[in-house]
Amino acid sequence: MLLAAGRGERMRPLTDTCPKPLLPVHGKPLLQWHLEALLRGGFHRVVLNTAWLGPKIEQHFGSIFPVQPLSDKHKQLLNTEQLQIRYSHEGRDFGAALETAGGICRALPLLCPASGSVCDDVFWVLAGDVFAPDFAFTQAALEHFAASGKLAHVWLVPNPEHNPRGDFALEAESGLALNLPADDPRPRFTYSTIGLYRRALFEPPWCAIAPGNPYGERAALAPLLRAAMDQGQVTAELYCAAWTDVGTPERLAQLNRTH
Fold first, then answer.
1. Of the residues 159, 165, 229, 248, which has the maximum number of CB atoms within 10 A of its CB?
2. How far is the C-alpha of 7 from the C-alpha of 18, rounded, in Å?
3. Residue closest to 129 by CA, chosen among 257, 4, 25, 38
4. Segment 8-19, tens digit of pLDDT
């Protein structure tokens, strides 16, 4: 699931007329970098949630990516045929974005339409406004997570300037992500907004939102993650390659100048 419903307030005025996932990074829309990376990993289905200027996102990407049949050269590059895109229209259905957990709950029927193998109830979640051009979405990572029985596996990054305190700690021996109290001196890292999740995290007893979120309840993901961490149900690893939270016009400009 690609999270693409936000208003992008900090990116104004750029996002007054262009949804943040379509802002150009090195000649192509920011969201396209994720789609290409998922294709390289052999993934064939994506769910996009939309709200602010959502029709522009659907108009740009459509239901198949890439729209044109791939040449032999691109098939080798992307390691697959094409990718099917489905949309969860939060703006159309409820007038605004449902936040992260609310949006994921709304999209669950699209993400996990049937339960067959253990992998049918696990999925990637990533924010459409981060730039991580070298991140590898692999089948091996998904299968390893599915077999672990955990509720989530998240990738952490060294703290950027705009988040010096970080979000979560990482216990090296166990690989568990830790939700530390404020006075705990152990180092924290920043959540990259890339993770693998199990459907069960968005169902009781962890989440009280009705299946499919029919009433459009808004809910953040962080409280669910922290509660699961407190029960030892979240693992993590540190990712130290290029990563940018494209959260302001200044960061976008810097990214286009330097990468």
1. 229
2. 10
3. 4
4. 777 788 778 888
